[in-house]
Design brief:
This protein is mainly α. It has 2 domains: 43 residues; 49 residues. 75% of the residues lie in helices and 0% in strands. It has 3 helices and no strands. The longest helix has 44 residues. The N and C termini lie far apart (89 Å). The relative contact order is 0.04.
Length: 96
């Protein structure tokens, strides 16, 4: 691999942190920067299929939420009515 020199400016604190990081990994600063650059550039710049699928799923869930809430409200109302009916039945029989 033929290499070329790239020079960039950074703060003294960033340089020290980079040198410490490289030393802790047993690597050169240059190698750390090369790996970081490759990983950074490999990141997708456009939404990927998984992100698009999650967006569609979130949209469907947001659309379904009001129907789910209405169904829960109806179920709750039926349960309250049933509970009242049972209380009346048991009261009539002298059980409660």
């Amino acid at each position: 691999m033929q290499t070329e020199r790239v020079t960039y400016l950074t703060s003294a604190e960033q340089k020290a942190a980079l040198e410490a990081f490289a030393k802790a990994r047993g690597e050169s600063v240059g190698n750390v920067l090369r790996e970081a650059t490759v990983r950074y550039m490999a990141q997708p710049t456009e939404p990927n299929e998984e992100e698009e699928a999650l967006k569609l799923l979130a949209k469907e869930l947001n659309e379904a939420a009001p129907r789910i809430q209405a169904s829960l409200d109806r179920t709750h109302a039926k349960m309250v009515a049933l509970h009242e009916e049972m209380d009346a039945f048991f009261a009539e029989k002298g059980i409660r």
